[in-house]
Amino acid sequence: MNRTGPGAAALMGAAICVLCAVGAAGAERPLLHTNEAYVDEVRRSSTLAITDPMAVFAFVFDSLPDRANVYPTENYYYFTFIHGGTRYAGNIRLAASDRDEGKVYFAYYEDLAEWRDQTPVVHHLVLDGSQGVRVEKVDALVYRISYGQKSVVFALNDLSHVTVPASAVGPNEKFIGPIFDESGIRFFLVYNSRLKVFHYILDESDGVADDFVPTKRIDRILIGRRTGFAFYRDLRLDRKILIGVFAASVPVNSYFDGPFDQLPDNFIQGETLRDAILAVEPKLKGHIDRFGLSADGTSRYLIAPYLDYRTEGDLYLFHACATDSRIPAASYYACFVVDYDSHGTPHARAVWQRRNVARRK
Prior knowledge:
Number of helices: 6
Strand content: 25-35%
Radius of gyration: 21 Å
């Protein structure tokens, strides 16, 4: 989801199906969603003070079950609803940085669509006891939020048991932490200290909630039928590196806009992430916390080495770089990081660096 907004909740029904299937014991029948139910919902008359954030929070909170499972690892609990023929999206967030101080974040806005050129009006609240919202820590990664006569237990996704296969971490790489994306896909975030680059590696240890198919020309590039996530089968290790997300998912802030906004906040050890970021961007020293957040908490260091692609052909630049004999062996993993020239044209970093060296000569 967008770093500058609360995150959208597009394609809710499809995501619910996926999350129901993830980790299920044995085969289950799929869930059925009908156009009849959708039409009934959009035509339904409803009453809600939509411009009053506390009124909307009361509605959302009262609609929740007594226990909510928060899958994404930046601890967003996403929701959508339709009111007055308009679809709204938002989230409740128990941020790792200050939830133990009794704070919880609430945000909502009119959902986005690619055909609409708009900047959404985001209604955003930081809630605590001063608004009658109480946050209590029940257990490790379990919190109870109370408002009025209702309490909801939020169980954050506990990935502390996740172990990383040797094939998921390459030479000069450090494992930062496990990620559960709002798409239902899991990743390992790794940092290459030699090349000073990050990669998202597909975590296949607990099944993968997608079906991957090779591109027409290059079978090493795989694209998810559901998510549109594109991966490259590493030539050196038995792993898949995220190289692309479908570009249409990004401006609408959907579940499929990439894992840049679901970092492993609950599992980052000490200064591991900040040290890696500062190695890449030394000028940020003294300006970010250990999560990569700015001092005022309004922005976060962006880790998005992958390409926003439109067609399969856009992804072929990664294979061209990975198999280019002119690329030094030590620069191989820089092939899976995208840089852009002054015209906005993407290039694999290793190719970009080689060209710059050639120009200097």
